Predict the 3D structure of the following.
Amino acid sequence: MRYWEDFTIGLVMEFGGYKTTEEEIIEFASEFDPQPFHVDREAAREHYFGGIIASGWHTGAMCMRMMVDHYLKDSASMGSPGIEQLRWKKPVRPGETLHVIAEVLDRSLPKSRPELGFVKLSHTVKNQDGEIKMTMVSSGMFLRDPARLQEGAGQ
């Protein structure tokens, strides 16, 4: 179990390997972002991007899935107060394999909730060739480790 104390400033985590497919891109966009360059192969070929591309929201969802699989499902996560910055740098195309580099930028303890801490992270989504597809800075809330909290450590 990862607690607030385990997310030290400067910690870098690299993870992922999410393979994108045209079918999944079209399915997601059909439901949530049905612009022609996300859902219509012919229209996408004639568009600026020259083919089907993933919705930026889909790229964010794929990043979230990789975050959950790598560190959130085995942590004392209490959710997130939000995203500070989100940038879609290059389109994600079918057949690309996405990876994430996450770095802990900062962390803090609220005075009103001693059992909880905030962790600010940057996430960079890259494809198999190292091209940056998306960047995000967000914060997460994590419970403090009860054992270390009792000892007064981890600050």
